[in-house]
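Protocol step 4 of 6: structure prediction from sequence.
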Amino acid sequence: MSNTLHIVGGGMAGSEAAWQAANAGLQVVLHEMRPKVETFAHQTGNLGEMVCSNSFRSDDDEQNAVGLLHWEMRQANGLIMTTADRHRLPAGGALAVDREPFAETITETLKSHPNIKISNEEITTLPTDGHWIIATGPLTSGALAQAIQQETGTDALAFFDAIAPIVHHDSIDMSKAWMQSRYDKGETEEERTAYLNCPMDRDQYEAFIDALLAAEKTEFKPGETAGYFDGCLPIEVMAERGRETLRFGPMKPVGLTNPHQPEVKPYAVVQLRRDNALGTLYNIVGFQTKMKYGAQTTVFKNIPGLENARFARLGGIHRNTFLNSPTLLDAQMRLKSCPNIRFAGQITGVEGYVESAAMGLLAARLAVAEITGQTLPPVPPTTATGALVTHITGGADAKTFQPMNVNFGLFPPVAGLKGGRRGRKDRYKAYTDRAKADWQAWLTAPKLDAA
């Protein structure tokens, strides 16, 4: 068989997989149908385009599982993390990036790699020979999704993923808004003032909830169901679950002091995060929505400080398809019925940019070992990468399988440490210390010739 690796999908997982495989010496063909075939959510034909948030979430590698995953990918020479660090924006303890130059750098890096060829032809069928990684993410084309469904013999599982709106900074009324990260988190002044805050009193909040509930929403097509991933709920769905839900979610008023009225505690706060290096664009944090465009502009202009907001992008909604991976994939991330095909990224049932890229990194390294006639030891489930792949390839209950972010609940317990909130800091540090040692050992472990 050829030693060429074909990768379908140029998002986070596909881009990372191409980088890892090409650096290992394989010839890689990266199949990305954009810009020839467009999707609802993408704006460009660039590889690694960020279509939802511009945040990779927490960068704390001692107390947070996402931050630990960042660390593991950096240790593995991950393209996504290297590029994210290069285009980092202030975001308190989070890792946010300037999305346009981020994607441009990913694209240029992969296009200029001597071992990578880019093809913009759409893949519509499952290949029966050769080595393949399918990393088409939540926006897998209809034809390929149908081919996957026919092969797996199951109905495609789906939920609806929503996109948050982006606002022009110069249209925000800063006499009402202010800059502050919650609890002034961050090592620099820039990080401590990374978020733009719009306060609401109780009457304003109640009026906002009323407007959300009354707004015209996007209707689902016949046969579609709305099984949302809880980590990316549209704000109106949260409001439907209870009028106070948003105050305990993205609009929680904790850790903030309004300098315009320091003696008045806001009843709720809408936060915006810088979306580009120039600071001209801000996205509304946690405000994914399925409201129609006209309703969005009306409702969001009820937010104090956004009365005259100009929107660079309004929110949207799209179908997100993923495999029931615990039943369909083996421990090597291969489709059991077609072992020449691996899956990676969000289509496997991980959620988030970093999780998707990590599965691309791992799928590529597994493919490299297989193509070169070697074997890799199993990834330790004590690592963030290992905990994720263990979950999607058998650790999760197939009957209730839903997309999952990395979290310490996926990790094997550390012996001798008690549960509960009181010992959480020590427990999380023990998780990350163990994971770092085990990940380094796995990265440096000798590859064995396949028997």
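Step 5 (inspection) to follow. The chain has two domains: 4-157+321-449, 165-314.
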